[in-house]
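USER: Write out one fold?

ASSISTANT:
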Amino acid sequence: MEEIFEHNIGIMLNGKERFNVEEYCISDGWVKVPSPKALDRKGQPLMITLKGTVEAFYK
């Protein structure tokens, strides 16, 4: 069971690998990525939800 957590996981959205994913849901088909420019009041990047076909895989 512990071997599962030793692997790195990659996320693909619509067939393209994404490297900046913060959250994802395979069943609902969305990923959350930080906005490149927009910041919230505390200076943290705003999260953008992208929808499509989400696939997770071991690297």
About this structure: The chain has one domain: 2-58.
